[in-house]
Every structure is written in C-alpha cells, then in structure tokens.
Amino acid sequence: MNPKSARKAAPAPPPYSEQGRIWDAVRETLPNSIPGGAKVIAIMGPTGTGKSTFISKLAGREMKIGHHLHSCTDQVEEVPCKVGDHHVILVDTPGFNDIHRSDTEILTALADWMKSSYQDRMFLSGIIYLHAISDTRMTHSSLQNLRMFRKLVGDHNLKNVILATTKWSVTPLEDGLRREKDLTSEEGFWSTMMAAGSMVRRFENSAASAQSLVEEILHLQKKIVPKVQEEVVHGKKLADTEAGIYIEQTIALLQKKHEEEVQRARSEHNLSMQKALKAERERLDKRMAERVEEQRQLHMTTNEAL
Prior knowledge:
By secondary structure, the protein is α/β, with parallel strands linked by helices. 50% of the residues lie in helices and 13% in strands. The chain is built from twelve helices and six strands. The protein has helices spanning 3-9, 18-29, 51-59, 103-119, 140-153, 173-184, 191-195, 207-218, 227-233, 242-267, 271-298, 302-305; strands at residues 39-44, 77-83, 86-92, 124-132, 161-166, 199-202. A six-stranded mixed β-sheet has the order 2-3-1-4-5-6, with helices on both faces.
C-alpha cells in the first residue's frame, strides 16, 4: 500500500458537519507538510483494545469501531489530524492473533506499510500501544501481541513507546488498579519495557486524554526506525526478521501439538473419545493447512511478499 494514495483515499465525513469542516481543513493543509513537518504516530495493540476509538477522539470523524471478537482494522490506515499546532498522522494498525487473518498476513501488511513509509521518509515519532484494563487477566492473545510488538519495534526503540491502558470506564476501579499493578510491578508484564524507557499512561476515553498522550510523543526529539522496518528495507525475507522467526516458532509449537493429538487419537480405544478426538484432529488438520500456507508466505522473498 502506498501511503500517499492512502492519504488521498481516506474517507471524509458528511461535508456539512462540523467534524467534516475540521477534516477538510486538515486535509487541505496536511499533504504539503508531510515529508518534513507532520509527526507520524502508530497506534498498536490487540483487537478490541480501543485503537479505533482512540483515533476517533482526535480525527474529527468516526472510525469504524469493532465489538466483541470482530476486528475493524484489517489493513494499515493513515488518519491525518491536528493536535495543537502540529499536523499528525495516526497510523491505525491491525492486531495479531486475529480470528479472521493470519499473523503472516498482518505482518506482511505492516511490513508493506513500513517499507513504503520509509521510502517516503515518513519516520515514526513514537508508538502508543493499547491494552484493555477490562481484561480479567493477560490472555494468550494479549501476550502474543505483546511479544510480537517487541519483535516488531526492537527494544532500542522502547523509549518512544507509551503503554496505555484503556476501558477504565467499564472496569471497577479496584479491579483496574490490581490489573494495572500486574502490568507494572517489578515482575509485571510491562516491567522490562518500562526499564527500557517506555511510559505507562491511562487513556480515559476522551479527546483530551488522547491529545495528552499524543502530545507526550510530540515532545520526544528522536524519531525511530522500528526493527522490522530496518530489516525489510535492507532486503530481509519476512521469515528472517525477528517477527517472522517468532511466527515460525509458534507454528512449530502448533505442529507439535497436532502430532501429539494424532498419536493420542490412534491410541484411544473408547469409541466416544475416538469420535471427539477425530473431530479435534480434523479441526487441527485444517489449522495446520493454514499454517503451512503461512510458512510459504513467510519464505517468499521480500520483493515478492511486499
């Protein structure tokens, strides 16, 4: 995807709304200032953490917002807005471990955007990574996203990252504080990222709160080149990037589980259990076929894949 074409194709709201007038004014002034003046900030995190809501609060228009398990961001989208005197491009990204798209497809979309944006000299000022404090625990999906995030960004860039919790308004305060501590304590899930310089903040579901987080990124002097961007720009295959290697490792674990289930089904003599295991094996067979295709995509050359 070409970032320039994405800016031209970005949908506008109804022309007579106040939001529409704001959007039109920003769109008129932004393209001429993009190479040197606009700040580019990526919004990342698992599906359902509020990425589209966050962007809607700043963009002067409603983004398509998903609920439950349905992701509404299946490609990388650039959304121009204005924060104070700054022109800003918010980059809406899909989350990994999505039920509708493979991790390889998502990695390919991100790598494609990063390669194109690098060629256009659109460098990231920082990244805001969202996590829903309403989640009762750190789910497997959330953990996978967090691990993949670090592979994509690289630990040397974590000083330009804000780790922001969302959905405080739908979470009992006592529960939210306990979960926040699980993330930020010395043994917490975010502790190593915090030690590397990442900031921890709360997104309070308001335009003022979103603006405050973006302004913190705007005050950072140094722009970043994420690890995967550096890798693909220098010609690496997706399979050879740190993110690609991590995906292959997860595929290998799934293959091992699949083989264990096959052996278990063969050794089971109970008829009811055999039927249940057969159904599970068929599900795993289908999933394995999808993962084999993922591996094929990962091992395409960078030019073919991107």
